[in-house]
Amino acid sequence: MIAESAENQRIVITGVGLTSPNGDSLSALRENLLAGRSGVSKYSIRYVGDTLAGICEFDELKYQKRKEVRRGTRAGSISVFCANEAIGDSGIDWENTDKSRVGIYLGVTEHGNVETENEVYALKGYDYDTSFWSHHHNPRTVANNPAGEVSLNLGITGPHYTIGAACAAGNAGLIQGLQMLLLGDCDVALAGGVSESIHTFGIFASFKSQGALAAHEDPTRASRPFDVDRSGIVVAEGGCIYVLERLSDAKRRGAKIYGEIVGYAMNSDASDFVLPNPARQAECIRLALRRAGLKPEEVDIVSTHATGTASGDAQECLALREVFHGCERTRINNTKSFIGHAMGAAGVLELGGNLPSFEDRMCHATINVDQLDPECEVPGLVLNEARESGSVNVILNNSFGMLGTNSVLIVKKF
Q1: Of 75, 223, 286, 368, which is most buried by a Cβ count within 10 Å?
Q2: What pTM value is reported for the model?
Q3: What is the tens place of the pLDDT at every residue in 24-35?
Q4: Is residue 282 included in any domain, yes or no?
């Protein structure tokens, strides 16, 4: 009984479902990361015109009917696809699972902008007569929509909601799922993050006005964190949802275990709307390590948040140098260089891309670094080519967001 009680306090990952700009499964994403293949391509959106983006090409009709796709949202379709893939991957006996004991916790950066922009754009063709406004607009734009669409699709009657935490939202979704399992609020948590951001022109226009929207004649080379010539963010869509369970339940059903979440932390900069605060980021990393009972030198791979902006990358590297100074074995990489910035899905996709390191002992690279910015020099950076890492037992995943929200998640090999 003592052993089982302890295992009730340990949360493990038993399923992964995802769609990304360079792969619609964990195996495909991993293969492309190790091969150095980018998923960024040319893209055009109203009012902004030609730009670049990370675009997903998953099968929307694999788990939904056309009518459901039309009535719902892109974020909802991403969520439904990822949730179904995660459940299938977990091997859980879904038919006999008590759906009232399943919780859905999805991180989002924003939701509703796409649908509102589309309605306003269509309405101008009717001289702004609001009688033509879609009656589907309200359920499409409520903040809980992505998680709610999963609930409807899978018949889940347990709690569902989204967590708004800017670009730290994916990690926040996992943290929420973990906490609800520990509280006994659910027995299975579908947790992660999703983003439909490339379908709103406003996000492109805003980054462009900031001078923070990446541009390059070769789309695959546009996202270039840490490079001296980085020009900004490549906006991406995507999603990644995990099946989380208590270790005792996972072992009881003989589940495969991707890893155990052993540490997490969230804090706030409280210093600026946009500019990151490296001191607060370092504090967040240290808090996660302390909760995990780990020292910095025990971390094998650090998955960075770096988005390709001048100040953001340099500030995160300052925090990394402060925490991981002297950690000779620690490898540091970045996934946004391959897929762009998937906003609410960024952290969970980046964690997913690194999870297979536990088995293949490889650390995928940060690509497109022709000349490392001296302000981004951190010992252990893996640049341009994947590197063998020996044994990989601990992965630390950074995700930071606007208005100074920081999140760190630590996963250990089981």
Answers
A1: 223
A2: 0.97
A3: 999 999 999 999
A4: yes
Same domain, 281 and 241: no
Same domain, yes or no: 244 and 268: no
* 4 — pLDDT class (breaks 50, 70, 90): low
Residue 258 in domain: no
Range of the domain at 57: 2-252
Q: What is the pLDDT of residues 39-51, one digit of tens each?
A: 999 999 999 999 9
- Residue 2, pLDDT score: 45
Binned at pLDDT 50, 70 and 90, residue 1 comes out as: very low
Which CATH number fits the domain that encloses residue 177? 3.40.47.10
Q: pLDDT, tens digit, for every residue of 230-280?
A: 999 999 999 999 999 999 999 999 999 999 999 999 999 999 999 999 999
Residues 32 and 176 in one domain: yes
Determine if residue 62 is left, alpha or beta; phi over 0 gives left, psi from -120 to 50 gives alpha, anything else beta. alpha
**131 and 24 within one domain:** yes
CB 232 within 8 A of CB 214: yes
**Number of separate domains in the chain:** 2
Residues 357 and 212 both lie in one domain: no
Which residues lie below 8 Å from residue 68, measured CB to CB, with a gap of 6+? 153
Regarding whether 268 and 393 lie in a shared domain, the answer is yes
Would you say residue 3 has pLDDT above 70?
no
